[in-house]
Design goal:
It comes from Halobacillus mangrovi. With 304 residues, this protein is of the alpha+beta class. It has two domains: 4-158 and 290-303, Ribosomal Protein S5, domain 2 (2-Layer Sandwich), CATH 3.30.230.10; 161-287, Alpha-Beta Plaits (2-Layer Sandwich), CATH 3.30.70. Helix content is 36%, strand content 23%. The protein has helices spanning 59-70, 95-110, 117-128, 134-139, 177-182, 190-208, 212-220, 226-229, 236-245, 269-278, 299-303; strands at 4-13, 22-36, 41-43, 79-85, 142-147, 152-157, 165-170, 250-253, 260-264, 283-287, 295-298. The radius of gyration is 19 Å and the shape is globular. The structure holds adenosine-5'-triphosphate (ATP) and L-homoserine.
Amino acid sequence: MSSFQIRVPATSANLGPGFDSIGIALSKHVTMDCEPADEWFFSVPEKDQPYIPSGEENLVHKTALYTANLYRFESLPPHHVEMTNDVPIARGLGSSSTAVVGGIELANHILDLQLSKYEKLKIACEIEGHPDNVAPAIYGGIMVSSYDGDNLDFVRFEKGLDELTWLAVIPDFHLETEKARELLPTEMSYKHAVHASGTANVLVAALAEQNWALAGKMMTRDQWHQPYRKNLITGFDEVETTVLGAGSLGMYISGAGPTMIALFDQLSAQQLDQLTTSLSDYKIEALSVNIQGAETISSHLQAN
Ligand SMILES: Nc1ncnc2c1ncn2[C@@H]1O[C@H](COP(=O)(O)OP(=O)(O)OP(=O)(O)O)[C@@H](O)[C@H]1O
Ligand SMILES: N[C@@H](CCO)C(=O)O
C-alpha cells in the first residue's frame, strides 16, 4: 500500500435559517498526507495540538475504525498521517466534519471499500447527527439535506456560486458546538416555528433562483438559532452594521459560531482592505465556494 493524500474542505452550516440542514463547502482545507506505519500517529500542526490528539483517540481514526467495523473489518492497518490544517478549530467552519469526512475517506481508501458519496454521507450523518456540514464537505457546493436517523435526502446547488464572496469574520475565541447547542430552546410555539420555517423556505427558493439579494435577506432573518446565540458573540451587531454598510447582502452566524459570514455579490480588493481595517479585532478572510468536496489522491497520481 503506497502513500496518498486526503483533502477535505471547510464548511459553513445553517446559512441563517437552514438550521442543521443547509451548508456550503468553502475554500479552506484540511490536508492529510498518509503513509503506512507501524502504529497510528497523527502529526498535528503545533497551533492545533491542544485540541487534536495524535494517537488512536483522534476523531479521524475513530471515524475510520467505525467505518471499517460497519464493513466487518475489525481493524485498520496503521498509518502516519501528516495533517496540514487551514480550518480553525471550534470556530463554526466545520472542523469536526473535516475530521469525520477525512476518517471515512481514510477507511475507504485503505480498505478499498469503493463507497459512493451517498454511502459516505450516510455514515457521516450517523456520526455527526445532522448533515449540514458533512454533506457539503463530501459533495462540495451548497447542500440542502434532510436526515431523520434513517431517511437521507438532499438537493445540491452549484450554479452561479462562483460569483459570490463569503467573507468570514473570525473572532479570536473558540466555541464548542455542544456548548452553543445548549443555549437553544427545547420547545418553540407552533406559530413561531411556522414563521421560522417560512424564512428557511424562501432562502432555499432564493438559492434555487440565484436571487442572492433575497437569500442574503433571509440569512439575517433566522429565527431558529441566531437570536439565542448572537449574544455570545461580542461585537455581533457592530460587525453586522459594518458589513451591511459595505454592501453585504446579508450576514449570518456560521454553524454554531463564533465566525460570522457576510455574503457579497461584489467585493473589490479596496473594500476588502477597508473591512479588514474596520474589523481589526477579527481575522478576515474572503472565501469562495469549493465545488468538488472531499478528495483522495493516490501518490502515483500526485506525482503526475
Ligand atoms: N483536523 C481534525 N482532526 C481531528 N479532530 C478534529 C479536527 N478538527 C476538529 N476536530 C475535533 O472537533 C472538535 C471541534 O468540533 P466543534 O463541532 O466544536 O467545532 P467545529 O466543527 O469547528 O464548528 P461547527 O460545527 O460549528 O462548524 C475539536 O475539539 C476536535 O476534537
Ligand atoms: N447546525 C449545527 C452546526 C454545527 O455543527 C449548529 O448550528 O449547531
